Hints:
Oligomer: single chain
CATH architecture of the largest domain: 3-Layer(aba) Sandwich
Largest sheet: 6 strands, parallel
Shape: globular
Number of domains: 2
CATH superfamily of the largest domain: P-loop containing nucleotide triphosphate hydrolases
Amino acid sequence: MTFELMPHQKVGVEWLSRTPRALLADEPGIGKTAQALLASEPPSLMVTPAMLSGVWEDEVALWRPEWEQGTDWHWVSYSSLCERVSAVSESGRKTSKALEHAKGDFRDHHWKTIIYDEAHYLKSRKAKWTKAALGLQSERIVMLTGTPIPNWSHELFILLRLLHGVKDHDYRSYWRFIETWFTWWTPPWGGGNHREIGGLLPGVTWEDFAIGTGLDKLMLRRLRDDVLKDLPPLTEQTILVKMGPAQRKAYKELKKDYYTYVEEAGADVSAFSDGGLYVKLAKCTTGLSTLMDEPTLQKGSAKIDALKELLEEREGSPVVVFTHFRTSARACVALGESLGRKVGLIMGGISQDERTQTVRSFQSGELDMLVGTLATLAEGVTLTKADTCIMVERGWRPSQNEQAIRRLHRISQTRPVSVIHLVTEDSLDQKILALLKAKENQQVSALRAAQFAAML
């Protein structure tokens, strides 16, 4: 079976073939994988999130069937890129930790091409897999991501360092990079060691930033609406829901406890552990059942009640439901099953093989409802069997929320796609929406200025 490349993909392959270091940042669903593979020379190393191993096997078989795995191409996940060493503690307990360099098999190999899929995984300069990636050598580097700026523009630092070469003086120091382009300040908390980074320096424009960092020449970004003229329309709707009496009471009590803690601690809470007050407050906006390890279908849970009505209206139609928290995902699964839906669940703690099979079962029609957390289902999969996406909760990264929607609205989707956002009135939900809007404004400004226009 052969597939014809679309015009914009042919342009992408040509550009990548003559650009030794490149960031292909096309919007999700345009076909970055095919372009990267056709522009690569073996031996090639694919570095991807662990959940995408099966996806890359399928894509290589489709676009480069002549390649032999283990000879022409190799695959490794970001999390397993580092070498792990075992040790025995004084108590006799075995421990294991990841070193900050790549495994010898990958570090010492002479690569013609390295492809970093979902390259925004490298945004943290302190992550061990980032430090391991900086030690890899290759004649050609291709970075793929539909969301080059997950949160704030300064997170581009590691991507820029890889694109310019780790020996480039301008990208040896993170804080030199920050002080060149961004404002920053030291908040009263953090013992004087913590710095908050703001927007661009006064007098500096996003065009200055794009040209000064080389993004205008190193990044190729096309918008879906510009290149996929025949893609069906996408509509988004926000439904405001009200808490029931019991939910509102629990929310007020948690909010009071949270602000009491903040006042006593003298700082906002930054830890997002499941037991943290802030997380409990966020979960409570969805429903009381999400505060329990084993959710029950309690009445008066605003978003769960609204989801029930939406599922009943769409009886028999495939639906994808996204949540942020695992307990919320379990509550949505319990609801779907109570309505007679055939439900699949994808979240942390579920094996990669099981996740892959669940997606295939949904796409084949064996399941008519798929529930997943944003952390596990927002990337690398195609969910075009459904034309309705319900966002019960949103993540703190606008790029992650956008990617989730593009699992449905992408190449091979033939029907108009409807996205429904459930938002709880007078709650933390509104603060999250305001923060997401601020991040989106910065992302749009930076990417629009850097957008590679010459190839369009």
